[in-house]
Amino acid sequence: MERRRFLLTLAPALIAPAQAAHAWAAKVPRVSAVPGGVARIGLGSYERAPLARLGDKRVLVMREADQWVAIVGVALAAKPGSKLRVQAERAGGYERFEIAVARKAYASQHLKVSPDQVDLSTEDLARHERERVHLERVLRTFSDSPPATLAMVQPAAGQRLSTFGRRRYFNDQPRNPHGGMDIAAPAGTPVVAANAGRVIDVGDYFFLGRTVVLDHGQGLLSLYSHLTAADTAVAESVSAGTPLGKVGATGRATGPHLHFSVYLNAVAVDPALFLRD
Ligand SMILES: [Zn+2]
User: Fold this and answer.
1) What is the CA(163)–ligand 1 centre distance, in A?
2) How many CB atoms lie within 10 A of CB 127?
3) 97, 109, 216, 263: least buried by Cβ within 10 Å?
4) How far lies 237's CA from each of 49, 52, 193, 199, 234, in Å?
5) Cα–Cα distance measured from residue 122 to residue 18, given in angstroms and rounded to the nearest whole number
6) CB 19 within 8 A of CB 262
7) Could you write out the DSSP letters of every residue in 64-91?
8) What is the DSSP string of 216-227?
């Protein structure tokens, strides 16, 4: 035990400068079991990866040193004080784990607007409903090969705005909380893949505008919206840094910016948890 502690103390000093640059990557995602956060569960050492589920959703499982860990996305809608139950299936049986959801306060914004600005026309409502069903299906994508890393690169140069989780009230009517990070950048700024993966959706949606969705494996997805154009196609493989398109203001955007979302087990989690500070 003493010897182990000694080695752990020495470890940071032993990291070569080239590796030090990547040391931050081993610390992501920063975990905290709050709505919109990420929880981590040690599943133990087995030869084959356990299969973990949260309700009917598969959960990301990857190897970390000599054990398997589950990286679980906590929905923005999760109630503080409630418990999420994760079931892991492995050789010889099942094991159940609980995640206690802690509180996190996100900003809220109350806006008074004329009703015709928030109520969609019948056609727009029908279009939005079709797109919502399509996107929900896309965001449930789960492919078996795990991501090589959970660390992400910022997909566009620009200021990160703390808009994740913000809830807007239009005339005191609550809207869904904002499920992404907005990055302020001029129109035409290149947008690149935040992590290696495969393009699983390219579309032009009522709210999100031109959008690209990437599958990084095991339910880790990323989404890029309001693009002027998408320079990629479904089924293309990308590396971190591969160009996907350019910043724009398509869809319902008040001005040019990138809307960047990250999903785990089909729920939006804070992209900042995966980025270098
Ligand atoms: Zn946004």
Assistant:
1) 7
2) 14
3) 109
4) 25, 26, 10, 6, 9
5) 57
6) no
7) ETTEEEEEEEPPTTPPTT-EEEEEEEET
8) EETTEEEEEEEE
CA of 168 to the centre of ligand 1 (A): 12
As to burial, measured by CB atoms within 10 angstroms (0-12 exposed, 13-18 middle, 19+ buried), residue 235 is: exposed
pLDDT at 4: 44
d(CA 212, CA 251): 13
pTM: 0.90
pLDDT of residue 26: 78
pLDDT band at 51 (very low <50, low <70, confident <90, very high): very high
CB 221 within 8 A of CB 215: yes
> Can you state the percent helix, strand and coil of the chain, rounding each to 5?
20, 40, 40
Amino acid found at 257: H
Sheet with 108-111, strands from edge to edge, namely 108-111, 167-170, 173-174
DSSP 143-202: -SSPPS-S-B--SSSSEEE--TT-EEEETTEEPPPP-SEEEE--TT-EEE-SSSEEEEEE
Residue 33's pLDDT band, with cuts at 50, 70 and 90, is very high
Quick check: 185 and 155 in contact, CB under 8 A? no
CA distance 195 to 25: 12
What letter represents residue 92's amino acid?
A: G
pLDDT tens digits, 160-190: 998 999 998 988 888 889 999 999 999 999 9
Ion ligand 1: protein residues whose beta carbon lies under 5 Å: 180, 182, 259
Report CA(226)–ligand 1 centroid distance (Å).
9
Distance CA 175, CA 164 (A): 14
Distance 261 CA to ligand 1 centre (A): 8
Residue 170: the pLDDT is: 86
